[in-house]
Design a protein that fits this description.
Length: about 400
């Protein structure tokens, strides 16, 4: 088989890239290790920056998003028993965020690709990449018991943090920058109407808690926990008690409780490889960088990468010029590092790093007091949260 761009991974990066390339008249094939059902049901991100929403709408994927997405004009920060609002619409000005689950975006993208005759091969195995530093790279894989090959002009490694693309690059060609955190998140989906219209980030002596939502009937909640936390130690009653305690404010607000539909633990890591390219292989999204989830940035960053890549590939196929492709890594990394900074900062301000460290605890409270009390500081949080401009 032959295609112009071989894409590894049917997550937000891989599917959006395939969609954008199709709109430019460029053919691609997407290979995915999991089944379509698995990809469409995996619960992950939920907060979309304004630019991600705009891209979905401009490229014909806005119908369900506009109907079912929950538009938010701000978030709340809770600390010291009080809740404070950061008003995005006022501070940015006019920009907002939308809660629409990652798996819903993936459903929309998969349907759009299949409706236009796009090729997505699910449930493939033994994917390997060859000839990365030649003009004719090849992907080999197995599907339904057969060995197959795709000959490509370019490869896009969109296969997430545990994929095969990054590890196919020779050792020494990439520099790795990394930070791990001494905690993880325990996330739940609950069948309960959201008790707040906007997400709430709560700082508490027992650890961070986050209140979010997925629909008028479903609440999404997260709790800081140990990195090696055993889910069996968290019966539903303990989860609700921790959520009530950590979100408690003097006005008596508490989340509405209901049956827990799903539970999971998510590790926290900051990770970047440089450059995001080797020969004809371009890395995008979590394959190239991971942010801790506190700023809700991972999926938005994955989509920002593939916008840059699609533009570079479009220029190449239209004119034969590689200027934008040659700048791909540098263009993306400028944004990646700013988003890393913001995600690290939100994480550092809101989580308990060391239960014994009274200095750190008071410094965090002072920082939250400053961020919510100073218009300049609130504005800085707001402009990062709604998404920095695409500067390419
Ligand atoms: P992925 O979504 O990981 O997709 C990669 C795909 O490649 C997967 O489908 C995988 O099965 C496939 N694959 C892997 N290996 C292979 C292989 N060898 N061959 C073929 N296919 C392969 N981000 C936000 O922006 N906002 C949020 O609110 C947010 N909250 C989050 C909350 C949680 C609990 C978690 C876990 C993440 C959150 N994120 C959030 C991060 C976001 O989910 C990721 O950054 C995003 O999924 C990255 O997209 P991607 O396409 O790069 O990678
Ligand atoms: C959600 C996830 C995040 O990481 C975040 O910062 C805010 C909201 C969510 O899943 O809704």
């Amino acid at each position: 088989m032959r295609t112009q761009v071989g894409i590894i991974g049917a997550g937000p990066a891989g599917l959006m890239l395939s969609h954008l390339l199709h709109l430019e008249g460029i053919e691609s094939v997407v290979l995915e290790a999991h089944t379509r059902q698995y990809v469409e049901e995996r619960v992950r991100a939920g907060v979309l920056e304004q630019a991600t929403v705009d891209l979905m709408v401009e490229t014909g994927l806005g119908a369900r998003l506009k109907q079912e997405g929950l538009l938010h004009n701000g978030i709340k920060l809770s600390f010291g028993g009080c809740r404070h609002r950061i008003d995005f619409r006022d501070l940015t000005p006019g920009r907002t965020i939308t809660v629409y689950a990652q798996q819903e975006i993936l459903k929309d993208l998969i349907q759009a690709r299949l409706d236009s005759g796009g090729q997505i091969h699910f449930d493939v195995s033994a994917v390997s990449l060859h000839g990365l530093d030649t003009a004719a790279p090849v992907i080999r894989y197995r599907a339904g018991g057969d060995s197959r090959e795709i000959h490509c002009d370019f490869l896009a490694g969109c296969d997430g943090s545990h994929g095969v693309s990054r590890t196919s690059i020779p050792a020494g060609a990439l520099a790795v920058f990394e930070r791990t955190y001494p905690f993880a998140w325990l996330g739940i989906l609950a069948e309960a109407p959201p008790a707040s219209e906007e997400p709430i980030y709560s700082h508490h002596q027992q650890g961070f808690a986050l209140f979010s939502m997925r629909s008028p009937k479903i609440t999404r909640l997260y709790l800081q926990c140990a990195p090696d936390e055993d889910l069996d130690q968290w019966p539903d009653s303990r989860i609700w008690e921790a959520l009530r305690t950590r979100h408690a404010t003097s006005d008596g607000w508490r989340p509405v409780e209901g049956p827990i539909l799903q539970k999971g633990i998510t590790g926290m890591r900051s990770f970047v490889v440089e450059p995001m390219q080797f020969g004809r292989l371009f890395l995008a999204g979590d394959a190239a960088h991971i942010v801790p989830p506190t700023g809700a940035k991972g999926m938005n960053l994955a989509i920002a990468d593939v916008r840059v890549l699609a533009r570079g590939l479009a220029e190449f196929y239209a004119s034969g010029r590689k200027d934008l492709l040659d700048q791909y890594s540098a263009t993306c990394l400028r944004r990646v590092w700013k988003v890393q900074r913001f995600s690290w900062w939100m994480t550092s301000m809101l989580h308990r790093f060391d239960a014994e460290d009274g200095f750190e605890y008071r410094r965090q409270l002072a920082e939250l007091d400053y961020v919510t009390g100073s218009r300049a500081a609130s504005m800085s949080l707001a402009e990062n949260y709604v998404g920095l401009p695409m500067d390419y």
